[in-house]
Amino acid sequence: MSDSLNNKYDRQIRLWNTSGQADLSNSRIACFGANILSAEVLKNLVLPGIGSFHLFDSATVTQADLESNFFLTKNDIGKLTSLSICTLLTELNPEVQGVHGDFESVKFTPSFFKKFSIVILCNQSFQLLSKVLDICWDLQIPVIDCVSNGFLGSLHTYISEHCVVESHDVPTDDLGIINPFEEILSYSSKYFKSENDDSSRNEIPYIIILIKKLQEYKSNNDGRLPTSFKEKKAFKDFLASDSYYSGNDNFNEALENSIRYLSAPSINSELLNIFGNDKCKNILSNLNKINDIPFWASASALRQFYYSKDQGNLTLPINDSIPDMHSSTFHYTNIHQIYKNKFKADSKIVHSNLIEILKQLPPTYPTFDISLEKTELFCRNARNLRVISNQKPVFITISTSQLAAATAANSQHTPDSTITSQGSSNPDKFKPSCLISNSLIIPKLEFSQFDLPEALLSSLYAFRSINSHIFTANNCAKSGITLDEIKGENSNINIENIVSEICKNLHSPSMEYTNQNTIHLNLGNTSTADVAAGNGADTSDDDQAIDLISKVTQEIMRSRGLEIHTTSAAVGGLVAQESIKMITNQYIPSNNTTLYDSIHGSIYSV
User: Fold this and answer.
1) Which of 267, 265, 257 has the alpha carbon at shortest distance from 211?
2) Which ranges carry the THIF-type NAD/FAD binding fold domain (predicted)?
3) Which end of the chain, N or C, is surrounded by fewer C-beta atoms within 10 Å?
């Protein structure tokens, strides 16, 4: 990277280093939907310097767009929205290439999507999401689905597996004090109690004191290390009884850290799961299941180091950094160099393991030239490696005729609040006047609890599932339904009822599955209104959920799918942040649905 670009991106390079910036600069983003949300998402990706973006949408700019989208001007009316937004976004960063196109230019084939680093859907239908996931899932291309609706927004990242090396998590100190390696033990033996005056004694690092005092403790206890808390407390008392360093700052640090460093080094559950994964244990037998071969080959090499008695012997490569401590510059720099040298030696062993693994790859696989520097980076972050794995989402289909029956049942109990086609409340003749499709599609939702965040997500999803099926003026003309009927108050209540029906039956016992991905509303002899009222069933929890859904749905219906720029700006920032995590393979991305609630100023993870 040139010096000018280094200076330009100086602040963000401090966050994800030059390697992360290189990944960003080489990335290609596919974005579906030219709207306020996509403009905000791409703005926050163009400024930090992605390689290119492709914006797909067939809509043209109207006067209504100018009233809410700050990126558009009067001169854009009649033009493709994707063209107008693309032109303005590329002005923000000349290093970024912007390409626009309509939906017809998209080819739903693996070869078309393979060229993209990530795919982002902004306020798009679940039908499109399902179609994109069918292609991108096996390619392990991240797909971020995001929505901005009034004062609410959501985003969810779909990917089968995501491997993170540089998680930037809190580093874990491992100084090898209970089982010191030869070099640090030799240095400790040389300088322990080697000074005659107090000022010189105060400059001996506490690492040396702990290592040598622990050696003395083992000699006095048949070679045993203190394991129980009682024994660790006894060691601390044994340490405190030594008057040689007593009263000095370094001795106080040794006392403070004495129990902390007496625990045997262990690996966290995330790394243990990685070591236990078949992709790591038997990498050559599972190549057909692996997309990120460099990661899993490195993990397999690290696993070999950890479990081999003549290598790590149940220890990971030592840290090449040491904490700040009271010490002379002489001792601190010497000790730091000792740990660095040991880290490099351990990393070379892991790298040798890695080279042997890569040599065994079939000739049909590409050659992976993984440098020693990359292996060192992997070992340096070994204690905070992360692998996020997910099951492919299930999309369920809901029959609109079943929704018709449900809303008709509601209308029999609340005739003033529900409209039916042709004024009839007969379920067999009823068809929601606002819908033009025979079925709706929605991701399957499963919650361990149901509160405000779950109600927000359910209602947003339900509204999205019907939003792409609402009549346009042309549809109304063809069907003989007037726009007044669609836009009137009764129609609003009708849509609200449909949203509520979807939500209630996604979570209530009245839902039955006829196959893996199709549900029908099982009204039986009890209408949905009876279920909502609690008749014939113990539904105290359902009552609260339904009441919550009703309130949330009313708020969502106020916006009717329209965007508020401030909401889209906030959601766009979150989406860009998650995108950068996926592109750079740094930091830990959200593995749940993130909800933005600007009404209460809250962000939820569901």
Assistant:
1) 257
2) 9-601
3) N
pLDDT (0 to 100) of residue 225: 87
Total residue length of the chain: 606
* Residue of 359, 382, 385, 383 whose CA lies nearest to 370: 359
H/E element, 413: helix 400-413
Average pLDDT over residues 333-354: 96
pLDDT of residue 541: 58
Residue 39 pLDDT > 60: yes
What pLDDT was estimated at residue 503? 62
Task: Give the pair of three-digit tokens for residue 572.
Answer: 């766009």
Residue 98 C-beta-side C-alpha neighbours within 13 Å:
25
Task: Pull the structure tokens for residue 284.
Answer: 């050559």
What distance in Å separates the CA atoms of residue 123 and residue 34, rounded to the nearest whole number? 9
The whole-angstrom separation of Cα 468 and Cα 240 is: 73
* Cα dihedral across residues 275, 581, 344, 360: positive or negative: positive
Backbone angles phi, psi at 447, to 5 degrees: -125, 145
Residue 321: pLDDT over 60: yes
Question: What's the DSSP call for residue 116?
Answer: -
Cα(268)–Cα(385) distance, integer angstroms = 10
Q: What is the dihedral of CA 263, 268, 274, 276, to 10 degrees?
A: 60
Q: Rounded mean pLDDT of 106-129?
A: 94
- The CA distance from 33 to 49, in Å, is 21
Two structure tokens written together for 372:
């020693």
* Cβ–Cβ under 8 Å, residues 378 and 302: yes
**Bridge partners (DSSP) listed for residue 427:** none
- Mean of the pLDDT values across residues 352-370? 91
303 DSSP assignment: H
**pTM (2 d.p.):** 0.82
What pairing do the DSSP bridges indicate for beta strands 152-158 and 594-597? antiparallel
- Alpha helices by DSSP H, 288-399: 293-307, 329-359, 372-380
For residue 70, pLDDT beyond 90? no
Alpha helices (runs of H) in 362-517, residue ranges in sequence order = 372-380, 400-413, 452-467, 473-479, 483-487, 489-507
- Across residues 330-356, what is the average pLDDT? 96
Asked whether the beta carbons of 132 and 120 are under 8 A apart, the reply is no
| C-beta neighbour count of 394 within 10 angstroms | 12
CA torsion sign for 583, 586, 591, 595 is negative
Provide, rounded to the nearest whole percent, the portion of the chain with pLDDT above 70. 79
Radius of gyration of the chain (CA): 31
Residue 15 CB coordination number (10 Å): 15
3 state SS of 522: coil
Query: Residue 316, class by beta-carbon neighbours within 10 Å (0-12 exposed, 13-18 middle, 19+ buried)?
Result: buried
Mean pLDDT of 570-595: 95
Distance from C-alpha of 275 to C-alpha of 271, rounded to nearest angstrom = 6
* Domains by residue range for the chain, with CATH: 3-150+565-605 (3.40.50.720), 182-262 (no CATH), 269-389 (no CATH), 395-559 (no CATH)
Any idea which residue has 């030059």 for tokens?
18
Q: Write out the H or E segment, with its range, that includes residue 60.
A: none
Please give the structure tokens belonging to residue 423. 């004024």
